[in-house]
Amino acid sequence: MAEFVTEFSAPIASASSGASYEWLFDDGSRMAGAKVSHSFARTGSHEVRLRVTDRSGQTSEITKTVQVSAGIAALGTVMAGIVPGGIHTCALNPSSVVYCWGTNWNGTIGDGTTTDHLVPTLVTTSQLFYQIATGIAHNCALTDPGVAYCWGRNYAGQLGDGTTTDRLVPTAVAGGLTFASIDVGFNHSCAVTTAGVAYCWGANELGQLGDGTTTTHRTSPFAVTGGLLYTVIRAGSKHTCALQTITKSAYCWGASGLGQIGNGAAGVADTSRVMLPTLVSGAHAYTQLDAGGSHNCAIAGTSTFCWGWNGYGQLGFASPTTCAASRPCAKSPAAITGTPGTFQLSAIGLGTSHSCGISSAGVLRCWGNNTHGQIGDGTTTNRPAAVIVTGVTMATIRGGNSFTCGAGTDQNPRCWGLNIFGALGLGDTTRRLTPTIVTLPP
Fold first, then answer.
1. Which candidate, 205, 195, 182, places its Cα nearest to that of 83?
2. Mean pLDDT computed over 239-258
3. Which residue range(s) make up the domain with 394?
4. Torsion sign over Cα 247, 227, 349, 441
5. 11, 50 in Cβ contact below 8 A?
6. End-to-end distance of the chain based on CA atoms, in angstroms?
7. How far is CA 263 from CA 17, 259, 274, 322, in A?
8. Is the pLDDT of residue 243 over 50?
9. Any domain includes 76
10. What is the pLDDT of residues 410-421, one digit of tens each?
11. Is residue 77 domain-resident?
12. What is the CB neighbour count within 10 angstroms for residue 62?
């Protein structure tokens, strides 16, 4: 598995012309889209080709040589594209314009209203975003310079604007910080600056802000305690994990009752907590990381490791133990069944109680809770081991609350699973058991 990840972007001016984009890398992999992330297996010189096909069908190509060094920050799972949340979804089109759909009770759609939308709806903002993260009822996004904006529910200060007022349109996060990575949980948000410093804000009843306290909430960004630098950060329901810059080790903090911290221990109740960043056991150097509701998965070498709650098989292997209230869990990372060996993942995306990953060739596998068809294999049978989702090749993947979305290698966004309030963006509320194309406005 590659250890060095960087981002490539076609100019916004050309991206708005309706052209299609194909990136070709010297390891044989291909990716589609105006903005992509690619993992390199080694440092040194690499050749990257961008092939652009305009609306008339005319193709042009440019070749660039890039120098990859160990100092490049890992972005983790590609977040640009389509990102499902609780019961709503947001997406970036190739021009970095944001659309959202689904429930809009607290302004999660960002169109200035609280009206639910069954189809993609333009977010009211003059900003162009390159990263977006969705939670249960709020969203945050980064502009190209790294300025953070959030919108939606704000009762715990999870929007970071210094208030607890819901925002119906994107609103700048206080503090004037420049971020490189951002993610949101149930009612908190976290981001890493371009210098690698982690900040969190919002609810903190279980220590998910990592400041060593259980302060009721923080309404603006507050530095995570410990002085470590991170490359990527991911927020679960009420816990947070991040990858340390130098060692690529994972650190977690917050809710610990179901083994979410991954340090070989677990609390005895749902209120158990760890308030400071704690090293995840195993001494693995991770290149990818994601957090689900109460579980986490990360990629190291040819294997994918998971830990935390395993009530539906979302860890991809049989639970070695139980945690609070005798629920199945893993207190330390273990490799999911099939890695290494039968398959290798290059990106992962976790939902509340299911998990998905894609290979470098775009093969999609999912496992865990499938009550609403979020696995995408045409059934509602829970999958305790990874199964291949046929009929698609994917470039990105993210999990939501009982549904899944991602961008295909053909540039088409797709969603499947639970469709309450129109979270799939298909114009209705009927669930889908297989990946279904979502039509974004041009």
1. 182
2. 96
3. 345-442
4. negative
5. no
6. 35
7. 49, 8, 11, 15
8. yes
9. no
10. 888 999 999 999
11. no
12. 10
